[in-house]
From TrEMBL:
Residue span of region Disordered: 1-20
Keywords for this protein: Coiled coil
Database matches in SUPFAM superfamilies: GTPase activation domain, GAP, RGC domain-like
Pfam families hit by this protein: RasGAP, RasGAP_C
Domain Ras-GAP: 187-403
Name listed for the protein in its UniProt record: Ras-GAP domain-containing protein
Cited PANTHER family: GTPASE-ACTIVATING PROTEIN (PTHR14149:SF17), RAS GTPASE-ACTIVATING PROTEIN WITH IQ MOTIF (PTHR14149)
Domain of life: Eukaryota
Organism: Mortierella isabellina
PROSITE patterns: RAS_GTPASE_ACTIV_1, RAS_GTPASE_ACTIV_2
Molecular function GO terms recorded: GTPase activator activity
Length: 806
């Protein structure tokens, strides 16, 4: 069961043989022993053990039915989402770094050596270099170190508080997407949440004023935001917000602007576009107060306010109804915020506490996706001007609802206060309900215990992640491990000084086996747990018999359609032609006899107790298959969204590469010799056997033709004024006469000359992007700046065998 409400142990990622399945069942039962200790009698103990066995036995590599196939597909999908989420995080960090560097380049304030440094940041990975690879002894030391860091989250929690903002992103990459990178595996997720609890507790302890809690841009707030960008958070946003936002985008002409000054400007622009003169009492520009007092402005705003609050209500309804879909981890963090606030500030009101929870849930999780849905891949195209305004206003209203509203800087939002007043009580109820989730400490204790019995705990980690973490730990060792006998200090002392960061080209991922230096691996988990818990050999045999019967019925599904005859099922399996099934059939025949001899089951009632539990298990597995299929369908959409975002980020990096290369070519700073320097509009010509290449004199590339329908479908055209009846006759051509310069022409079929021609510079496009200008106005159409950059890259960047900059 991937997500059982009562569950303590998740079985995802642990396909085992039947004997190890039983070991895990015993482990699960032991974990629950304290909760079930008040029950008495054999039936209650069997029920407890059986319930937990269900969760461990759902996955069976020896069965190939529809459920097994669906579970395998779901596991693979979750693994892909975890891996891709890390890749996106790394790309996002690169894009953030290059945003600031390209801004300087656009302003012509970057020296040539700085250009070369930025270019090196963009270089792709090349073949492995053994000189940078840790030797066997180092691998063992790092395996010990990272097992300790993963298993004892307090060390990482302290480190996250000690680093500065410049260091936090690199550390978060390691923590969120590597150390605890398996986002759907219970042990890693629960360890990560334990780390959050430590970090939040320290944050509350050191914050002197209640009003400043979790507000500033600190490493802690960056951690919380990064956590929401993991797979489960992205899945929730896609499921809950996508339909509402896309529905709003369909009404591209719906203008709900309520800022009086902007509404006044709209009135002025409309009069001038119609060719009329402004009335004498209507100056071109006025103050905000004058615009707010204008009766015509108010007449426009009043119906818009009603409609805006109606749209906001629909968004709010969707969010509140999604309570059970909110990822467990996000709800658990909300619970910690509430708990810590009550302990540290016992005088805090429920409204004040809900304000803190809302600050996390809305400000750092929901609202960024509402304001910029294209960045979260919730929409297929860039929102138009009016929907973009509406989404921003909705986000502000939701934030005012979650927090104590302050209209000091935006007085035009005061008329939306009725929305806040009407919904304050139910949003506070929702925020409190978010916190109503169980803890996982018993489960985590058992997961940790079981981890010692596994021999294949590994991290997929890059060299620089290892070396950077090593360096940060060493830098702060006096705080993290002040005593000589602290395990962390011992491991760091043995590892020695942290190696320097390797060049980007050599920063390859490695597989790092993890194991404990101090904990003894458990060779026989079943025996170990039986010795510590009140679970007998009869319990083990009963569970194992049930396990095998469930496997047999899954392999022989026609038995499930009638009352279970366990003797007949065992005999059929024992006489089949499948050797594996024969072994199982003979084994359960013997087990039935042994269990009957000790009085656990009775042949006279056709083993009714065991048969009933097997039947319940099969019913559960049938329901599970439906849930697994539904979850897979949902995650397929999430995975596609994450891949789309990855392509968008790669496109952004390609834009930067091309622009930087053009600048370096034009300034004489491009690579010399055998390297092939390529920018947008620069062709590479090979010169015979020597393999050397040179940039030829720039040639005109294109023109390339694109239909209106094609560009609109791809989202390049964000807004169009072309009537539907004429779109089929409109096409565009794009050519590149010289590096970094493009000619865009709009043509109408049957006419020789273009209707419109625009000379476009690459740095102008990038500058618009830097200034957060999202569309390029071509009179008849408005082009998405980011999609246009992607189109230019795809069309004009010349790639050779060794890549762009090799």
């Amino acid at each position: 069961m991937a997500d059982r409400r009562s569950g303590m142990v998740q079985s995802m990622g642990y396909p085992q043989s039947s004997s190890s399945v039983v070991s895990r069942a015993v482990a699960a039962a032991a974990a629950n022993r304290r909760q079930s200790s008040m029950r008495t009698g054999r039936a209650s103990k069997q029920y407890s053990v059986s319930a937990f066995y269900s969760m461990a036995a759902e996955q069976d590599v020896e069965v190939e039915d529809d459920l097994a196939q669906a579970q395998r597909h779901l596991r693979d999908l979750k693994s892909q989402i975890s891996t891709q989420s890390k890749k996106n995080f790394v790309l996002e960090r690169d894009v953030r770094y290059l945003d600031s560097r390209i801004a300087l380049l656009i302003a012509n304030r970057m020296a040539l050596d700085e250009q070369n440094e930025v270019a090196s940041h963009l270089e792709d990975h090349v073949d492995d270099d053994d000189a940078h690879y840790p030797d066997h002894r180092k691998m063992q030391q790092y395996g010990n170190l990272f097992f300790l860091l993963q298993s004892e989250p307090r060390h990482v929690a302290s480190l996250c508080r000690l680093v500065n903002l410049a260091e936090i992103d690199t550390l978060l990459q390691t923590v969120m997407f590597t150390l605890y990178g398996n986002q759907y595996e219970s042990r890693e997720e629960h360890l990560l949440l334990t780390m959050f609890q430590n970090v939040l507790a320290a944050q509350f302890e050191t914050t002197t004023e209640f009003t400043s809690l979790l507000r500033a841009n600190t490493p802690v707030s960056r951690m919380m935001t990064t956590y929401t960008r993991r797979g489960p958070g992205q899945s929730y946003l896609k499921t809950v917000l996508s339909n509402s936002i896309n529905s709003l985008l369909e009404h591209k002409d719906l203008n709900l602007q309520i800022n009086p000054l902007k509404v006044y400007e709209e009135m002025v622009n409309q009069i001038e576009e119609e060719g009329r003169d402004l009335p004498p009492d209507m100056p071109r520009s006025v103050t905000s107060d004058a615009a707010a007092a204008n009766p015509d402005v108010n007449a426009i705003i009043t119906p818009r306010l009603t409609m805006l609050m109606d749209v906001a209500n629909r968004f709010l309804d969707t969010i509140i109804e999604s309570l059970e879909q909110v990822p467990y981890g996000i709800r658990w963090i909300c619970k910690q915020i509430r708990s810590l606030t009550k302990r540290k500030y016992p005088e805090a009101t429920d409204i004040a506490i809900c304000s803190l929870i809302g600050g996390f849930f809305f400000l750092r999780f929901l609202n960024p996706a509402i304001v910029t849905p294209q960045a979260y891949m919730l929409v297929d195209r860039l929102p138009g001007k009016h929907p973009r305004t509406t989404l921003t206003l909705i986000a502000k209203m939701l934030q005012n609802l979650a927090n104590k509203p302050s209209y000091a800087k935006e007085t035009y939002m005061i008329p939306t206060n009725p929305f806040v007043e009407r919904n304050k009580q139910r949003i506070n109820q929702f925020l409190n309900d978010l916190c109503e989730v169980g803890d996982f400490y018993d489960s985590l204790e058992m997961d940790q215990y079981m981890a010692l019995s596994k021999k294949d705990i590994v991290l997929n980690i890059t060299l620089n992640e290892i070396y950077n973490t090593h360096a940060l730990l060493t830098q702060h060792i006096e705080v993290l491990a002040p005593k000589k006998d602290d395990h962390l200090r011992i491991l760091l002392t043995e590892a020695g000084p942290a190696p320097a960061q390797v060049p980007r080209k050599q920063n390859l991922p490695i597989v790092l086996p993890l194991f404990s230096r101090w904990e003894t691996p458990i060779q026989d988990l079943t025996t170990a747990l039986m010795s510590e818990n009140n679970i007998t050999q009869n319990d083990i045999q009963y569970m194992e018999a049930k396990a095998i019967f469930v496997q047999l019925v899954r392999s022989l599904p026609y038995f499930s359609k009638k009352p279970l005859n366990l003797s007949r099922i065992a005999e059929t399996a024992a006489t089949s032609k499948d050797a594996q099934m024969v072994r199982k059939g003979i084994k359960v025949q013997d087990m039935l006899k042994e269990l009957e001899e000790v009085g656990v089951i009775d042949r006279k009632d056709n083993y009714a107790l065991l048969a009933q539990e097997i039947k319940q298990e099969l019913v559960h597995l049938g329901d599970l298959k439906d849930r697994v299929t539904q979850e897979s369908a949902s995650l397929e959409s999430v995975y596609k969204t994450i891949l789309d975002h990855n392509n968008y980020l790669k496109s952004q990096l390609e834009s930067y590469k091309a622009y930087l290369q053009n600048v370096r070519i034009q300034s004489g700073g491009g690579e010399k010799g055998g390297k092939k320097s390529v920018g947008i509009g620069v062709e590479v010509e090979n010169s015979g056997k020597s393999g050397k290449s040179k940039a030829t004199r720039p040639q005109v590339l294109g023109p390339y033709k694109f239909t209106h329908q094609q560009l609109e479908k791809d989202g390049v055209i964000a807004v169009t004024n072309v009537p539907d009846s004429r779109k089929g006759s409109i096409f565009f051509t794009i050519s590149c006469p010289m590096p970094g310069t493009f000619i865009i022409e709009l043509h109408y079929k049957g006419r020789d000359k273009p209707i419109l021609e625009m000379d476009l510079k690459l740095d102008d496009l990038l500058e618009k992007q830097q200034d957060n200008i999202q569309v390029l106005d071509l009179e008849y159409v408005q082009l998405s700046v980011s999609k246009t950059l992607h189109l230019l890259n795809k069309t004009f960047v010349t790639k050779n065998k060794t890549g762009l900059f090799s």
